[in-house]
């Protein structure tokens, strides 16, 4: 069998970019809507917020049943 010479300088086909996951698109749309209403996104890199942001900043009383550890995520 004859082997064809291989050209290492050639470029291959362009790889397509792919698509965004549907929930990422929905989240971006919600972000755009809320920012259009005047809300600002807080700079944070935490996925789980402290009880201050989940309860105290929302003026939820200390004795509220939702503050029990078994009732929160």
Explained architecture:
- By secondary structure, this protein is mainly α.
- It has two helices and no strands.
- It is elongated and about 85 Å long.
- The N and C termini lie far apart (66 Å).
Order of helices and strands: HH
Helix content: 25-40%
Instruction: Give the termini separation.
Output: 66 Å
Q: What is the 3D form?
A: elongated
SSE order and pairing:
Layout: H1 22-36, H2 51-54
Short account of what is shown:
This protein is an all-alpha fold. 26% of the residues lie in helices and 0% in strands. It has 2 helices and no strands.
Key traits:
single chain; about 70 residues; mainly alpha; 2 helices; about 25% helix; elongated
